[in-house]
Every structure is written in C-alpha cells, then in structure tokens.
C-alpha cells in the first residue's frame, strides 16, 4: 500500500481523503448523534479498556446487565477495538475516541477500495472513482451516522479485499489466494453476518464461473488452501465462539425473528427506512452504470463475461433477490440476517468496482472527458453532504462532548440484549437481586470484591464438606477459581439463577481469585493462531523473496 501511494498521483489520494472527510462531516459537530448501536459499541470499548487495566488482556467477559458479566468477547471479536480502548487508557474522551476511530475506518475504506479496484482494473482513474463513490455511499453513511453499526462499518473495509481475492483465484494469479484469506479473516473478526453473506456471494461467483474453474482445476485447489489458512489464522476467535455456541443453552438459539425487508425501488436508493427523504449516491446511482454498461460498453467491446461484467450481474441478482425472496419463510433459517439491506455492503462494493471501470470506458468516448471525469466524484461528495444535512432532523437525540451517563460506573452497561444469556435464567432477577454472594452455610464469614472481569472471594469458618458460595457473576464455561496463596483449585458450576457457584469442599478458609481463564479449546486456539500467523508471515516472506530474485 505504501509503495502504491508513492507511485501514484498524490492528488488522487487527496481526493479520496477529501471524500472521506465530507462523508464524515457529522462527526465534526460537537458531541455525537445517538446512533442505534452507539451505547453498545462504546460499552464494548470501555469494557476492553477496563479489562486491560486489571491485566485481563483477553477481555472476553465484559460487564453486562447490572455488572453480572456478558461473554461479548466470545461472540464478537474484540481485536480491532483494542486501538480505541488503548486511546481511552491514554485519557482520550470516549466520544472523541469513537469519532477518531470512525474517521480512521473511513479513510482506510477509501484507500482499500482504491487499491483493490486498481489491482483489478489496472486503472488509477477507475480506482479513484470507485473509492470516492464507495466511501460516500448512502448506506455506509447510514451505518456510521444513523445505525452506529461499527461492525458493519468495518465490513466495508474487508469486502473489497474478498472481491479482489475472488478476482485473483478465478481470473488472474491464483497464487495470490492469500488475499482472499486475509479478506475473510478480517471480515470474520469484524462482522459475522456480513461474513455469512460474503460466503454466499463467493459461492455465487464460483457457480457462475464453474466452467472456467473446471478447465483450470488447480484454481479450485487454491480456494481450499485459502479456506484452510483462514480457519488457522482466525482460530483464536472462531473455535471458542463455536464451542460456546454449541455447548451453551443461550437465548439466541431459540429466536425466530422475522427478517425485515424493503421493496425493490427503495432498495435502489441504498437507504433503509430510517431516512428516505433523499437519494444519495447509493445503489441507485451505481445501478445506472449497469444499464449503460450493457447497452454501450459491453456491446461495443463484446466482453460480456469479464470480471467487471460478472460483478455487475451478480450485484443486480442480489439486489433483485432482496426484493423477491420469501423472507418470511426463510427467516426461520436465516433470522440472524435480521435486515435484508445488509446485502447492500457487497452490492455497493461490486457496483463501485465495476462502476469505476466502466465510467472510465464511458469518458474515453467523449470530447470533454476531463469535465465528465470530475462530475462523478464531485456529485458523490455533494450528495453525501446533502444526505447528512437532510438526515440531521431524524437524529434528535444528541450527546454532548462529556462522557454519557451510560459510560459511568454508577449505571449498568447496556451491553446488548439477552441473546447470549442462558435461556433458563430469570433476567428480571438481575435487576431485583442485590449483588451479594449467597451461601448454603450460614456460619461462613466471607468478603467479596468485584473488580470487573476478575472477582475476589475471601472466606473462613467453613465446617461442612457440601458448602458453596454463589458469586453474583453469571457462569459460563471457562471460569476458574483458584486460591491466591496455595494455588488450590476449587470446583465451580452454575448456581442460583446461573450465578457462579464455588464449591468449598473441606477447605475451612481461603482467599480465592475467580476469573475467566477460558476452556482448553480457547487456550489451544490462541496458540494455534499464534503459530499459524508466524508461519503464514514467514511463508509469504519466503515466496516474495523468491519472486523478487526471479525477477
């Protein structure tokens, strides 16, 4: 990426940065708009920072309802949130931290789209147009401004990388399959739902190009290589997540929520139902490219099955699928998608890449190509500004620059809904009970200290072998209770309303530390990913050196 920035014109990257700034103008207003998931993501960042403070670098267990704990780090990867968490630890205000992080993501999204489009089209101009249209698209603005969907905003960064990986494996140098791997690993660690969607999109690409893959079967082998590397590199999150999901009786397993849909013409705007007052440069503008491509450009060049052509066709197919699929019935199986407009992310990426390419073809036939070339970036920047201005009135709830009430320790974390709590737990008791340990032995004297993800319990005067103490922290597989001094391990299980139950056995007194160590699978997966990343980096370095020597 650094070499490419040096190689290509500075003004192109300046244009992308300007587009990114205009796409983020709402962040420059004092305070921040109250996005739908804002509390959740700010709470995640704060929880990671709190875990780091006490030496819990895994930061798997976050504070949940009334401080009872929530396995957020098992269900959603925290890896990319360590940066804003470290900023918090350095004393940066929570809201300012969040804004800086969104700006960084936006800049990175534009540069990554430029890089991926350039590698596919070999055109600086096409890459610039693609990056500007992509970063200013209405759905991406909606994600960061209205929905505060931080995970999906991160997904915008990695979807183009996956598309570039598909291009390499199917159409170009299949030995660059690792791009496909890196794209999926980054996406998996950012947003699970978009990961599933991109698996579907990748399968569609493979099916559409099955004849080419059958003619060159070694390309199929590189998809397998990519999948194996992807599993190894992401094992530190993937394996513990699957273990937790399969072994834990959690509410999300029994949900059958309907999938929210929209009609085809509303989908064209690229704007969900939150703000439908203006059609910004979303899917509608890019869809116009598709019509033009196949009437003029493709017909003239007779190249209907190029990668850019396939990107257009698949983008349109997905767009139509959003409107015509029987989501009410499919929702029983894919309820986790929740919103059909999540498919906008790959649609926008596909249309942006092909749109930049075909727009360059378009101006090649025109007399005033310079003016025409400036029109699309200028229109995209202008329209994204208008979209934000028009959307302001829909964002009435507004937080000032000071830390919001939910970020203080006086109130409970609104970490999320109850998806990953046990289905047999009474959630109402989390609000009614006092967070005090409970024991079946009234003679025991104990002292309890809650330091977030690490708990301390000191007790004495135990004269029974069946004594236990229920700690006001929700139990999940992977917790460990150990005596601070003699390292004796205490058996634990779930107790009162799924609290952690520490069995005291014949020990009359102890000073116990209770923390989330993780299961054996978690420890193994951490080591597996560590050695896999080391091996992957060494392998790629060796291959790169051999290639340089041959050249």
Short description:
This protein is of the alpha+beta class and 551 residues long. 56% of the residues lie in helices and 9% in strands.
What is the topological layout?
Elements: H1 2-7, H2 10-22, E1 32-33, H3 38-53, H4 72-75, H5 82-89, H6 94-121, H7 124-135, H8 138-146, H9 150-171, H10 178-188, H11 192-208, H12 210-215, H13 218-233, H14 235-247, H15 264-269, H16 283-301, H17 307-324, H18 327-334, H19 344-363, H20 369-391, E2 398-399, H21 429-432, E3 438-439, E4 445-450, E5 454-460, E6 468-474, E7 479-483, E8 489-490, E9 492-494, E10 499-503, E11 510-516, H22 520-550
Antiparallel strand pairs: 1-2, 3-6, 4-5, 5-11, 6-10, 7-8, 7-11, 9-10
Helix pairs in contact: 2-6, 2-7, 2-20, 3-5, 5-6, 6-7, 6-9, 6-19, 7-19, 7-20, 8-20, 9-10, 9-11, 9-19, 10-13, 14-22, 16-17, 16-19, 17-19
Shape: elongated
Radius of gyration: 26 Å
Low-pLDDT runs: 274-281, 396-413
Number of DSSP strand runs = 11
Kindly report the average pLDDT value: 82
Beta-strand residue fraction: 5-15%
Helix amount: 55-70%
In spatial order, strands of the major sheet run 4-5-11-7-8
Structural class by SSE content: alpha+beta
Q: What is the count of DSSP helices, taking H or I runs of 4+ residues?
A: 22
Largest sheet: 5 strands, antiparallel
Straight-line N-to-C gap: 20 Å
Overview of the molecule:
- The protein has 551 residues and is of the alpha+beta class.
- It is built from 22 helices and eleven strands.
- Helix 5 (82-89) runs antiparallel to helix 6, helix 6 (94-121) packs across helix 19 (344-363) and helix 16 crosses helix 17.
- The two termini are 20 Å apart.
């Amino acid at each position: 990426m650094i070499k490419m920035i040096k190689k290509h014109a500075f003004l192109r990257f300046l244009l992308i940065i300007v587009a990114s700034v205009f796409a983020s103008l709402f962040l420059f207003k004092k305070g921040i708009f109250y996005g739908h998931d804002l509390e959740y993501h700010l709470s995640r960042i704060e929880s990671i920072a709190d875990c780091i403070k006490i030496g819990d670098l895994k930061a798997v267990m976050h504070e949940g309802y009334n401080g009872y704990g929530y396995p957020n780090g098992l269900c959603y990867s925290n890896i990319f949130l360590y940066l804003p968490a470290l900023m918090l630890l350095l004393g940066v205000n929570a809201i300012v931290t969040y804004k800086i992080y969104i700006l960084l993501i936006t800049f990175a999204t534009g540069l990554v789209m430029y890089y991926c489009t350039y590698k596919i089209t070999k055109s600086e101009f096409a890459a610039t147009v693609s990056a500007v249209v992509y970063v200013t698209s209405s759905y991406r603005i909606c994600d960061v401004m209205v929905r505060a969907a931080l995970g999906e905003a991160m997904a915008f960064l990695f979807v183009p990388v996956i598309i570039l990986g598909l291009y390499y494996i199917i159409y170009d140098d299949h030995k660059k399959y690792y791009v496909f791997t890196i794209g999926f690993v980054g996406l998996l660690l950012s947003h699970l739902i978009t990961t599933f969607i991109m698996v579907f999109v990748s399968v569609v690409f493979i099916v559409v190009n099955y004849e080419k893959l059958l003619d060159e079967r070694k390309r199929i082998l590189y998809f397998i290589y990519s999948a194996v590397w992807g599993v190894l590199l992401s094992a530190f999150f993937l394996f513990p997540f699957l273990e937790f999901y399969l072994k834990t009786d959690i509410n999300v397993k029994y949900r059958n929520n309907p999938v929210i849909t929209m009609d085809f013409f509303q989908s064209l705007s690229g704007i969900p139902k939150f703000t439908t007052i203006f059609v910004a440069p979303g899917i509608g503008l890019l869809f116009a490219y598709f019509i033009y491509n196949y009437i003029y450009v493709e017909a003239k060049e007779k190249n209907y099955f190029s990668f850019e052509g396939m990107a257009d066709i698949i983008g349109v197919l997905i767009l139509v699928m959003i409107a015509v699929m029987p989501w009410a019935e499919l929702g029983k199986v894919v309820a986790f998608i929740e919103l059909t407009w999540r498919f906008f992310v790959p649609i926008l990426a596909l249309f942006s890449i092909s749109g930049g390419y075909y727009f360059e073809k378009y101006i090649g036939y025109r007399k005033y190509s310079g003016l025409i070339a400036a029109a699309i970036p200028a229109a995209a920047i202008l329209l994204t500004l208008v979209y934000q201005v028009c959307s302001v009135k829909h964002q009435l709830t507004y937080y000032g620059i000071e830390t919001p009430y939910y970020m203080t320790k006086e109130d409970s974390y609104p970490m999320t809904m109850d998806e990953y709590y046990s289905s047999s737990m009474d959630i109402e008791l989390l609000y009614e009970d006092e967070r005090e340990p409970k024991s079946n032995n009234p003679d025991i004297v104990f002292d309890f200290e809650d330091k977030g993800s690490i708990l301390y319990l000191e007790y004495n005067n135990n004269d029974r072998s069946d004594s236990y103490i229920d700690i006001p922290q929700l139990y999940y597989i992977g917790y460990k209770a150990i005596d601070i001094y003699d390292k004796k391990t205490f058996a634990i299980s779930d107790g009162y309303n799924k609290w952690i139950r520490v069995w005291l056995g014949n020990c009359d007194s102890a000073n116990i530390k209770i923390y989330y160590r993780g299961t054996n699978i978690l420890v193994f997966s951490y080591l597996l990913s560590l050695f896999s990343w080391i091996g992957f980096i060494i392998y790629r370095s060796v291959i790169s050196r051999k290639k340089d020597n041959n050249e």
